[in-house]
Every structure is written in C-alpha cells, then in structure tokens.
Amino acid sequence: MPTIQDIENAYERIRPFIHRTSVLTNASLNESSGAELFFKCENFQKAGSFKIRGATNTVLQLTQKELDCGIATASSGNHGAALSMAVRNRGGKTKVVMPNNTPKIKVDNVERNGGEIIWCEPAQKSRELVLKELLAETGAVLVHPYNDDRIIAGQGTAALELLEDYPDLDTIVSPVSGGGLLSGTLCSSKEMKKEILVYGAEPAEADDAYRSLQLGEIQVNQTTNTICDGLRAQIGSVTFPIIKEKVDGIIIVTENEIINSMRMIWERMKIIIEPSSTITLAAILKRKELFKGQKVGLILSGGNVDLTKLPF
Amino acid sequence: MPTIQDIENAYERIRPFIHRTSVLTNASLNESSGAELFFKCENFQKAGSFKIRGATNTVLQLTQKELDCGIATASSGNHGAALSMAVRNRGGKTKVVMPNNTPKIKVDNVERNGGEIIWCEPAQKSRELVLKELLAETGAVLVHPYNDDRIIAGQGTAALELLEDYPDLDTIVSPVSGGGLLSGTLCSSKEMKKEILVYGAEPAEADDAYRSLQLGEIQVNQTTNTICDGLRAQIGSVTFPIIKEKVDGIIIVTENEIINSMRMIWERMKIIIEPSSTITLAAILKRKELFKGQKVGLILSGGNVDLTKLPF
Fold first, then answer.
1. Do B19 and B87 belong to one domain?
2. Number of domains chain A is built from
3. Which of A184, A287, B176, B237 lies 20 to 30 angstroms, CA to CA, from A130?
4. Is B237 a catalytic residue?
5. Do residues A249 and B290 make contact, with C-beta atoms less than 8 angstroms apart?
6. By the 8 A CB rule, do A302 and A273 touch?
C-alpha cells in the first residue's frame, strides 16, 4: 500500500509532465445538492483524464531495458492513451489491448499518442486472455491500469492537489472501477487529513466493488452494461484491500441517475466530462443526507466522450 | 462612444455581480492554428454569457422610478436572461421579446432568471414591431441588447480583464452580431494597448457587419440562416461607428467552418461553448496568415447550447 511519502515522491516525479488541474465550483449545483461542491477537473488533464498521473509515475521508474522490451496494457481507453503518452515521452512504444466496444474518441486518443491497438471482446476474460498471449509472444512489459502500487501512488496525487488547494474539505467522492483512483485517493487524503470521509461511486450495472465490500472479499462483475465505459473493469487484488480498510462507503447509482447528473454538469458548468465522472455527482444527489452542509470534493476523472453518441 | 474611464467605472460597478472568468490555453489548438491562443471563457460567466456585464452596468444606473415601470428588451436569449437576472437583483421585472426559433436552453434560462417571454417571429422587423407595441402598451423602459453606451461599456470589461491578465497579447478576436461585444472590446483594448489588433468574426450567413464595413454604411442582413443563434442580430447605429473607426477587419466564415471549430474546442478543451463563440477559432483557422506566431485572445462569448440539438 503506497504511503503518503510514496505519493509525495510520485508528485515530484510527474509534476513536469502533468497539469495541476483547476477546481471549479457552481452555485446552482450547490443549491441542488445542499452541499458545497468542489470539482477537481481531471477532464482538463493531459490525454483527457487522471490516468496520466499513474502511468507517468510508473513509466518514469522503468529501466531502459524494460522500455526496450516494449510496453503493453489492457485498457478501456484512458489508461491506454495516458500510458502511450508517458511511454512516448521516454522514446518507447506501447501496445494496448482494448475492448471492441470502446468509444471512437478513446481509440483515436490512444492512436494519437502513438499506441498500437490490439482488439479483444468486451468481457474481462477476453481482455485477460488476449493480454496474456500478447505478453508471451512479444516479451513486452506489462503496466497494469490499476493493480500496481506505482499506479495507485500516481492516481493519489489528484486528491493531494485537491486537499492542498482546499484543506477544509469534509468529504471526497471518487468513481470506482478497478480501484486505482479510489485507493490512491484513500492513501493520500486519509493521511493528509485523518477525519476526512471518502466515498466511492459505482454504477449499479457494474457493482463489483460494492458487493465485494459487503461480502468482504472480491466479487466479479455480473454485468458491465453501463454507459460509464471507464467503469467496467474488475476491482483488483492490490486495490481492494486498501479500499476495504479505508473507504467510508460505496454508493451505487442507476444509469438514469448517471445520465441526469451528466446533463446537469454539462448544462450548468459548461464543461465536458465522461459519464464515468458525472457518477460522483449522481452519488451525492442520491444520498443527499450524507453530504448535507458539507464541503465535498468530487474527482471528475476524465472528459473523453464521443460527441456523436450522447445519451440526451 | 464609451471612454476607457467609462469602462473602468463599469467594471467597478459590476464587479460584485459577475465572475472574473478564467483564461484557458490548449497546446493542441496552438499547434493547429500556428498561434498562441488565450481563450477568455465567458461561457463560465453568470447566466452563461458575457451579456451579464452590459446588462448589470445598465440596470445599476437605472432610477428606481424607471425600474418601477418594468424593463423590456428584445433578445435572442443571452441578453434576455442576463437582463432578467440583473433586474431581479434590484427587485424589478423584465419582459423579453424573443424569436420563436430560440433554442430551448435559452428560453429556460430567461424563465429561470425571472424574465417573462413575449414571442415574435425570427425576422428583425417582427422583433422591432412586437417590442414597439410592448413598450407602448406597458410603458416599460427599454434596455437595448447592444445599441447603448452603457451596454457597450459593460461588454468592454471582458477584454479589460483579458488584457489585465495577459498584457502581451498581439491580437483579440471577438464575435460580432449587433456589435456590443466587439465595440466594447475595441473601446477598452485599443485604449489599454495602442498597437493591439482587433478582429470581428461573423457568419457568412449573417454578414451585415462585414458588408457594412466594406460599404462604409449600415447594411441589413439578407439572411440569418446560421447555426450561431446569438449572431443573427443587426449591427446597430451606436455600435457601427465605433467598429468602423477602430476595427482591423471582420472575418466571415461558413457554417461548416463554425461547426468544425466547435467540435475541435469541445473535444480538445473539454468545455461547452456556443457556435456563436467557436466562430472566433473558425476565423483564426481560416486566416492563419493573419495570426501566425502571435499571442491571440479569443472571447468565448457564451455556453448556452441545446444539448439535444448538436450539429455533430
């Protein structure tokens, strides 16, 4: 489990390669939620999501020999693009195993950053199989999207910046998928401020983290039939223990709640964020009693949306 | 014609009621344009556009007696909403004459801010007629959307903030419709920095300002068949002389160029802005040779877009 020192080291390491993203507020959404909301805008981040933080932190720690073997990963898109960018910054090459239902904007984003795409079926099993074959055939070095302490430490720097900017936050809400962002957020924020509460927000249609937490051990997703294309991954063996130990709860929301919150943010804040990020607002609106009167940080994880396929 | 002192006074007056909006940059759009671009984000402004600046500056100078008569205007939407908000802040009421093809989000925005809508046909003549009848019947006080020195001085505060933040800009590009924003921008920026260049950007489908400038006197729009619903108004008798005296040129662009630039900004900057604002980038991309290597400020005038009717 990354320590706060690991996360501070990660921040020093990645700083020249990332944006320190803005934190926005919105009077109208404060009114709708009954809380004071602080939106950490990782949609404005390089390559369009927070993923560049963990990817950069990991890639900068690879040896030249590892880089020369080529880098590989499996990703629904944002990690693939971020990793491709981080590897290219060091002069290397990346192969990305990607589900064949990935939105075009995320495919383009990987290719624009120099990544090569290897297609797989949407199911987790197909991802794993295709990746395993790729690693065996090419000898490439795997950089996992979340199940890796270096990735977790990198993702934890988003909450670190947020709490540096707004030290009086009471609560932080982060999306949860494989668990890299949520576990990183827990590792940084709970060390920086002991009394802070941290919740995960998860689609009911891909609720493995919620059920895993309830039962105390890892459960698999029974569906991944959610508009949140960034939240279809399976909670990891490295991330889950951190979440289990530290999280204050996981809030699950329906597809309609996610779409409604997306529209609210787009219309009122005039920013473009993914459904996988708007889920944080959906969770707050669903469980208003948990957040009433509090200062709440929301990590808006990314902004890579296919504009020709909006849900409204 | 407002002096720089008028604009500074306006700024002091309206400051408590507006946002000082952020200025964003984007490496990828710099690369596409060959210039260094600074986007003044009035889409994040109160009521969703720069219009609150001029409306507030005007309303704060009305007498209580004038307010008690009720306030009226004709507007494609953004001025109507802004005026309704500014008038409500002083406890008054506003009637807004609005074309019946106005996007729903702009209609809702007027109503949410307490304005009452009076419908007219899209043509300028219908607007004028309905407004004239309204004023005669109700005795309401007109706050014109642009043909008024108080409005122009208010709109000039956007460029004032922009040049305070980035004094080394070489050029500013502003949309032009009735001419309030462009003439205000000219009045502030040319006084703050003598050598600055200022261009207007106008749809070819509503090119009255461009033709008026060429012929040296006001011409009327022959069509207003543009996606830029905020740029269908007619250049004014107060705004045109300022533009004629001070502007360095008006660049007209096609509907396709506007839509392409909109998609570029949405996808790369992750912000929601109106077609009426993206036209500034379209103008720069069309006339790259004018802007090559320069530091260019773009006034992104507003973000009120109907998300169910996107052109892509």
1. no
2. 2
3. A184
4. no
5. no
6. yes
